[in-house]
Amino acid sequence: MNKQLTGIGKAVIAIVSIAHLIFTNIHVKALLLLEHEMCGFVMFLFVLMGLVALFESTRIKKNEKAERIFTALICFIAAGLGLYLVAIYRNAISVQRSLDVNVVRNAVTFSIGIILAYVVSGILMIAGLIKNR
Questions:
Q1: Could you tell me which of 44, 54, 49, 43 has the C-alpha nearest to residue 18?
Q2: Across the chain, what does the average pLDDT equal?
């Protein structure tokens, strides 16, 4: 059962991190409208941590607990960066008057989906460890 949970987590990480990279233009369209100077850097870190999670998930061997824990940690860090980016988006929606709100809302929805996938992946990695005991 723990192999299944870890395998599902690895699959979700692979699909989400590559999809996130492919559809980064959703973020870029929103970021070009924002007046926040850190939003591009936070978006870059969000995408980068997803790719790091993908790399780390490929390193997981059969009974390696440390690699599963580290992959779950990277997933949670990616989710945290995503939450920070969503906070920047929401702040811009409430503060900036001349903003195409629909573009930014699309980026918020996309980000929340990615965040949820990383959180689920991290939980699956931890659940696979707990089931292994």
A1: 54
A2: 91
